[in-house]
Amino acid sequence: MAKITLSQLRHSYLPNPASPDDYALKQIDHTWQDGGAYALLGPSGCGKSTLLNIISGLLEPSEGQILFDDQDVTHLPPDKRNIAQVFQFPVIYDTMSVYDNLAFPLRNRGRAEDVVRQRVTEIAEMLDVTAMLETRASHLSPDNKQKISMGRGLVRNDVNVVMFDEPLTVIDPHLKWKLRSKLKELHHRVKATMIYVTHDQTEALTFADQVVVMDLGVIVQIGTPVELFERPAHTFVGHFIGSPGMNVLPAELDNGGARFAGVPIPLEGPITGSGQRIEIGIRPEFVSLGSGGVTGRVRKVSDLGRHNVVEAMVGDTRISAIVDGPVPEQGAEVGLTFRQDQTRLYADGWLATEARP
């Protein structure tokens, strides 16, 4: 396994990029520690596949370096980087048995047959496919085919990194949870460095120890799932993480504080920045309905089973609140209050308040 360092990395698909907007991948300086489980999370077109292809060697960056354990591999082809990659669609040989599919990467590297047998047996047990080792791959269900594809990536114990490029895209929703859990279990057992690319926040947050959130070619935040939820460094992270996402409300500065809809809003702590666009961020979990605060009118109530999501309008601004108890009727006037220690100020999208200890 390897520590992976990205140093002053940028990439443009244009031959002569002249401005930051010409870069699909803005400057990145980051290190993935040996043995960690990481997710690259972001919408389509944010640059996560570009970054994965640069790490794997399928794409050479316009600028910067990629280091595996401090060795520069920037200009090495994929077969010289000692990596394994699992793609969106299963990459297996339908005419081979499950056993031979799992054995193929080892046999291709000349491993002794007793080593092959031991490793294939171990991986098959981890994946719960021991009973189908003699089954031809063409007879497998899509989720089992993807299990075998994952197994082919994991069967070698000498790779620097295992990379997963949206591996659950073709899997039925009711089976995704099982495969995510299995992948997390596999990481704990094999201790390989793993990088998981996805646009699905549930996949990223349930798999990774550290999530790298990307938008428009920029890494906007790196953190644990708890850190991303509780303290988004950017309004994009607040929108993208959580269901429903963070409320982002237009605001204005006022004598060291902030106002929304003309009402002073207590913030988590001192304001540390300023910008042309000032906004308040508050997650729906920390919005309460009652008297006082900001006055709104209920637009919609959605019953999600475990709780209700109440959407209220304050002028033209929509605010969502998660409510466990009784809910007001549509059209009712309500007071909206925000839990102070969870109410943050953002300047030009970036966090601009300091949390009180």
UniProtKB/TrEMBL annotation:
GO molecular function terms listed in the Swiss-Prot or TrEMBL record: ATP binding
Highest taxon of source: Bacteria
Ordered alphabetically, the record's keywords are: ATP-binding, Cell membrane, Membrane, Nucleotide-binding, Transport
- The ABC transporter domain extends over 9-241
Among the Pfam families in the record, one is OB_MalK
Q: Which SUPFAM superfamilies does this entry report, sorted A to Z?
A: MOP-like, P-loop containing nucleoside triphosphate hydrolases
The entry sums up its family as follows: Belongs to the ABC transporter superfamily.
**The protein's name:** ABC transporter ATP-binding protein
